[in-house]
Amino acid sequence: MNKLAPKQVMKSWQLYVLLLPALVYLFLFQYAPMYGIIIAFKNFNPVQGILGSPWIGFKHFETFFNSYVFTNVVVNTLKLSVFSLLIGFPIPILFALLLNQIRRQLFKRFVQTITYAPYFISTVVLVSMLNVFLAPSTGFVNNLITMFGGDAVNFMARAEWFRSVYIASGVWQTMGFSAIIYLAALSGVNPELHEVATVDGATTVRRIWHIDLPSITPTIMILLILGVGSVMAVGWEKAFLMQQGMNLPASEIISTYVYKVGLLNSQYSLATAIGLFNSVINFVLLIVTNFISKKLTQNSLW
Amino acid sequence: MGKVISQSKGDKLFNLFNYSIMSIIAIAILYPLYFVFLASFTDPDQVNSGGLLLFPESIYLDGFKKIFAYKPLWDGYLNSIMYTFIGTFINLAVTIPCAYALSRKGLAGKTPIMLLFAFTMFFSGGLIPTYLLISNLGMLNTVWAITLPVAASVWNIIITRTYFQSNIPEELLEASVMDGCSDFRFFFSIALPLSKVIIAVMALFYGIGHWNSFFEPMLYLTSNEKFPLQVILRNLLIMNEAGSRMVIDPMSLAAKQRISEQLKYGVIVVACLPLLIVYPFLQKYFTQGVMIGSIKG
């Protein structure tokens, strides 16, 4: 159908003009940096440029794999994102299923309005809020803990608390917003199904399980594939902003490490190699999950 | 939904549980925001000692006075407004025409072009190659470094394309073509005026992104006077400079510490102010945007 016949292209040349800015953007700012990836296999030197620098093969990858930070950084990245997915993914679904059962429209809208709000707060402000709430001597949370006789905890500085704080605040911020897409899918469920089931004596819980949940499964699967596919790409802004010297054992993830190696220490090639390692794993995960989902549930991205 | 048949015991229990959970969630999300708001003008002694729960005992506005007198914060504000406008304008100029063209059925080469776009959603050059590119283009420390590299989001292009596909009737195009209407003309005088909703949605999506953007400005901007609000906020709040930077007059250390906490709450409130003002409008459009995008991916 869509043969690139010159005649047809000429006929709709104006449409290609409309496409042009986006295509220029795509090649200049998306594909050109991909070309820049070759410096991962070179000993990049800004004077010689990307083409002129000498090839050295996989040496930077070896350096990274053999470095003492490798295990720690990769494990941190995996833990942070897998736990975020395990906890952060199902909660908006549950929330949407429950909210969908609220019959009082005013209350429903009230809950929705409030739960979306944190989504618009910037990461900087969110992390600042965490800092003031969790401050050891003046923070609200520690005041509560000490009021009930507990000992204040320096949450933001302790490595063992980093992931919990990261994930819980993430749920707090995005739960309501992520639920919108499921609520949209739920609004498309045929109400007759529910009426018939109610007449047959099905309880609300059974109707959620047998009617609501199956109808949003395709949406869930697509979002799950995307979620798994970006497992290694945890929101690095937030991790970066939450980082302190004391919590580094848990908070140093691949992307923050790339930033330090590349831009603070100017080891461009090594940092590019580490970043490429990260992207490739991500991409493979995406393809594998998509393949599995296609086999099991017939839902896939392509 | 008609009349509800009398509820079973289990359903009544479920409803009770459901309403309670929803109320708890609403409170858990609202309370921290409410607390920040209160703490920004409550006597810091009450806040720091944990005495503030629902209402302030005495009001104390020194924090806000200091904040209003702190010039870098307001420069950051102005910069953010400027970057948001420029950035959003570029976003719309790239996204809307592209999405329209891609929504057209007969467009030759549509599938490969879509693939080219979609691939970038899952794979990218990464931090360093992008940084080198921006630097080679001579865009470091200019507004272009933070607006052009994010000129379009593929996800938003897809949402907009879906909107065009489902809201501009095919017959309209056919009739216009019969009357000798060119593609340009149809896009500018017919499709665009019919698409105010999606343009508003996209303006908000992109606008919020620019307003909240922190990482690119931190990376690509080097001079202090160009920093947007978020970078200023990070220096003040996360690098913990709120007390020392904003309180210049000689004060005892204790007094400084006392007010530095209040300054933080106040700065957070000031930073969120624009969002609070537009939120009522925003929310409706955001929901619409997500709905449009979710109907067909």
TrEMBL record, chain A:
It is found in: Cell membrane. Residues 74-289 form the ABC transmembrane type-1 domain. It holds the Pfam family BPD_transp_1. InterPro entries: MetI-like (IPR000515), MetI-like_sf (IPR035906), UgpAE/MalFG_permease (IPR050809). GO terms for biological process: transmembrane transport. GO terms for cellular component: plasma membrane. The chain crosses the membrane at residues 12-32, 80-99, 119-145, 165-185, 216-236, 268-292. Keywords: Cell membrane, Membrane, Transmembrane, Transmembrane helix, Transport. It comes from the Bacteria. Its main location: membrane. Belongs to the binding-protein-dependent transport system permease family. This is Sugar ABC transporter permease. It comes from Paenibacillus sp. BIHB 4019. The lineage of its organism: Bacteria, Bacillati, Bacillota, Bacilli, Bacillales.
TrEMBL record, chain B:
Pfam families: BPD_transp_1. The keyword Secreted does not apply. It is found in: Cell membrane. It is a multi-pass membrane protein. The chain crosses the membrane at residues 21-41, 81-102, 114-134, 146-164, 184-207, 263-282. Keywords: Cell membrane, Membrane, Transmembrane, Transmembrane helix, Transport. The keyword Glycosyltransferase does not apply. Its main location: membrane. One of its GO terms (biological process) is transmembrane transport. InterPro entries: MetI-like, MetI-like_sf. SUPFAM superfamilies: MetI-like. It comes from the Bacteria. GO terms for cellular component: plasma membrane. Residues 77-286 form the ABC transmembrane type-1 domain. Belongs to the binding-protein-dependent transport system permease family. PANTHER family: ABC TRANSPORTER PERMEASE PROTEIN MG189-RELATED-RELATED, POLYGALACTURONAN_RHAMNOGALACTURONAN TRANSPORT SYSTEM PERMEASE PROTEIN YTCP. This is Sugar ABC transporter permease. It comes from Paenibacillus sp. BIHB 4019.
